[in-house]
Write a structure and sequence with these properties.
Elements: E1 4-5, H1 18-31, E2 42-45, H2 50-62, E3 71-77, E4 86-88, E5 93-94, E6 101-102, H3 105-114, E7 118-120, H4 122-126, H5 129-132, H6 135-141, E8 146-152, H7 157-171, E9 176-181, E10 186-188, H8 190-205, H9 209-218, H10 226-238, E11 250-251, H11 253-256, E12 262-265
Parallel strand pairs: 1-5, 2-9, 3-8, 3-9, 4-7
Antiparallel strand pairs: 4-8, 5-6, 10-12, 11-12
Helix pairs in contact: 1-2, 3-7, 7-10, 8-9, 9-10
Length: 266
């Protein structure tokens, strides 16, 4: 039997009905407008409920429309299980309302071989939403792409850097996109959140993964997926990316109208 990771938050964080989900995802993609020119190597996208983070995520995934990509490497944080290293789901598929998304097993094996920090840890994937929230968008813009799902436990510099190196080594020569999943500050008022989030935004705009890691080591509350973002930025540099740009910033209060306790999205 091929292992299939069942969707954990379909029907709660996003619609479980295929047609309803397609309408919502397409609305967010269409609202993003014309994507910037250039060949994308990596994107950063949030992972909150679709109604809250979808308007921001749509700007990231709109960049991938029409791209010729065979594998997407997804890196997100672990919210429910604490562990050292990175949990890989190396065989089978992830289920979605749009159908199963297959694992790129050869690429997964190459990443595991290239890093001593990467190992199977099925429990880390069971409830984790940070990768699952990427799949409705990914399946919509790249319906034939396979994935490598990676969930990072404790976000240490050595883990993040070695994972970035391993990803760059494994995908070289492939038509690949790297995806970092992160939200920004949590439950501050919108003014405070914007000040905190601007520090992360500055490191992204400067395309400085080492600077971002240093920020996170002193203030980890800035981004729950900061370590995964460092890994993806580092790998993108190694693969030839020359610059980074922030396409859209917002917070949950843009949707809920509650600006007293927001979550930031990039």
């Amino acid at each position: 039997m091929v292992p299939v990771r069942r969707a954990a938050v379909a029907g709660s964080w996003y619609p479980a009905d295929r047609e309803t989900l397609a309408r919502e995802v397409d609305r967010h993609l269409d609202a993003a407008g014309e994507p910037p020119r250039g060949e994308p190597i990596a994107i950063i996208a949030p992972h909150a409920g679709l109604m809250y983070s979808g308007p921001i995520a749509g700007h990231a995934y709109n960049v991938l429309r029409g791209q010729d990509i065979e594998v997407a490497v997804l890196v997100g944080p672990s919210h429910y299980v604490g562990f050292e290293g990175v949990a890989i789901y190396e065989r089978g598929a992830f289920d979605t309302p749009f159908g199963a998304v297959p694992i790129a097993e050869h690429c997964a094996s190459a990443i595991r071989t290239a890093s001593r920090h990467v190992a199977p840890h099925p429990t880390a994937h069971v409830r984790e939403h940070s990768l699952e929230m990427q799949l409705p968008f990914l399946k919509r813009v790249l319906p034939d792409a396979a994935i490598v799902p990676l969930v990072m436990g404790h976000q240490r510099r050595g883990t993040a850097n070695e994972l970035g190196d391993a990803i760059a080594t494994a995908v070289k020569g492939l038509r690949a996109i790297l995806i970092a999943s992160t939200d920004l500050s949590h439950y501050q008022n919108a003014t405070t959140a914007a000040k905190l989030d601007s520090r992360v935004i500055g490191q992204v705009q400067r395309f400085d993964p080492d600077g971002l890691m240093s920020l996170l080591e002193t203030s980890p509350e800035h981004a729950c997926g900061g370590g995964p973002t460092v890994s993806v930025m580092r790998a993108a540099k190694l693969l030839g990316a020359r610059d980074a740009r922030v396409l859209k910033y917002g917070d949950s209060g843009d949707v809920s109208a509650d600006k007293d306790a927001v979550v930031g999205y990039l």
